[in-house]
Amino acid sequence: MKDAFEVAERIKQIRSRRGLSQVELGERVGLSQRSISSYECGFCRVPTTILLKIAEVLKVSLKAFSPNGETETPVKEPPLRRRILRRLKLIESLPRRDQQVVLRLIDNTITAAGNGRRAA
Question: Which of 26, 43, 67, 81 is deepest in the core (most CB within 10 A)?
Answer without folding.
Answer: 26
